[in-house]
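Saturday, quiet lab. Running sequence design on the structure tokens for the scaffold JK sent over.
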């Protein structure tokens, strides 16, 4: 059903139409010029490892679950970021059978890539009509959107390009807070390393949770994450030329933890309250109250990343008195509670050769 993501298959094995339960599925990884090599290599290694690496490590017979083939638009080698050359096995036109197609991430000039890769769009539509699962990683999602396959469907992408994609593809139901979305055999993932999340999701979908867990453990990676909003950097304001509003923004960045009212902020720059709200929204894209919330949540994230011991102290320092209200606001913006955010991100800080929990980083 358009607009409704399918959750079918989580925890139990599914099979591709016409394929036996033990027949390896065919996966095609499509390389893009100037893209992120890891978004192709990561899925290659996950799919290749499913039913193989864990078994090898435990002295058990290997049971490959996928056959992986790497293609480029024209069959020629591509050069990824950092001048790393990648040589495909074939061109997309040479693919005669595939169950899963993965579109690796392109560089940031997505529209230029699309213009150079026009044969890819009808090729994607053809294989989707034949029943293949098609997945886009990070900016690679744009090719699914450009093909029209995502119209009326749920999709995600990297939070940094979500606004651009939302404006260019308004018929897509964008869910940029999610790491992975699935809707009508169309899968999308967020950032570069969400390619691992997407690949493991597909391993679990077709091979069952046990195989997916074995695959994750043998590769020393985590099982798929749920949301990416905790990783995003808040863009408080879009570029604008309203000097009065910019003055207010500067003031808010310095005094966000104070008791601020619309009337007081408007009075500071010699405006009426209604005119101030209108101009602030037009310049920044946010209402003043929402802007202040983003500033406070951003400050709270900084403190939690540094391992702040007390959620109550964080709440007070950013200007909230009601800790329940703070938790609610934080979860709305970050996709997780303050305690969950601290548990996930505090240990990621590295300072002077030590991790946040005191272990040596060496």
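Result came back. Writing it out in full:
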């Amino acid at each position: 059903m358009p607009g409704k993501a399918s959750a079918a298959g989580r925890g139990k094995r599914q099979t591709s139409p016409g394929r036996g339960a033990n027949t390896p599925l065919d996966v095609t990884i499509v390389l893009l010029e100037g893209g992120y090599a890891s978004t192709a290599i990561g899925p290659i290694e996950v799919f290749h490892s499913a039913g193989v690496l864990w078994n090898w490590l435990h002295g058990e017979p290997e049971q490959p679950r996928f056959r992986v083939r790497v293609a480029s638009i024209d069959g020629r080698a591509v050069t990824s970021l950092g001048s790393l050359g990648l040589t495909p096995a074939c061109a997309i036109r040479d693919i005669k059978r595939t169950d899963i197609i993965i579109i690796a991430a392109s560089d940031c000039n997505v529209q230029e890539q699309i213009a150079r890769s026009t044969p890819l769009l009808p090729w994607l539509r053809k294989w989707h009509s034949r029943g293949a699962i098609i997945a886009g990683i990070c900016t690679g999602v744009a090719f699914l959107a450009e093909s029209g396959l995502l119209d009326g469907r749920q999709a995600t992408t990297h939070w940094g390009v979500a606004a651009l994609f939302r404006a260019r593809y308004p018929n897509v139901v964008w869910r940029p807070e999610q790491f992975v979305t699935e809707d009508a055999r169309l899968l999308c993932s967020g950032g570069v390393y969400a390619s691992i999340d997407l690949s493991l999701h597909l391993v679990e979908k077709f091979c069952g949770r046990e195989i997916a867990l074995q695959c994750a453990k043998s590769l020393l990676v985590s099982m798929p994450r749920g949301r990416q909003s905790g990783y995003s950097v808040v863009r408080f304001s879009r570029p604008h030329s309203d000097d009065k509003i910019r003055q207010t923004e500067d003031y808010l960045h310095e005094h966000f933890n104070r008791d601020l009212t619309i009337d007081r902020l408007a009075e500071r720059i010699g405006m009426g309250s209604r005119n101030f709200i209108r101009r602030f929204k037009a310049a920044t894209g946010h209402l003043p109250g929402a802007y202040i919330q983003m500033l406070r949540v951003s400050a709270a994230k900084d403190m939690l990343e540094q391992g702040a011991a007390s959620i109550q102290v964080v709440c007070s320092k950013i200007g909230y008195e009601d800790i329940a209200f703070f938790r609610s606001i934080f979860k709305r913006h970050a996709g997780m509670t303050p305690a969950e955010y601290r548990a996930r991100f505090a240990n990621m800080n590295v300072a002077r050769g030590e991790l946040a929990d005191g272990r040596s980083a060496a």
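Notes for JK: The CA atoms of residues 187 and 295 lie 33 Å apart. The two ends are 51 Å apart (CA to CA). Ask whether to fix the surface positions before the next round.
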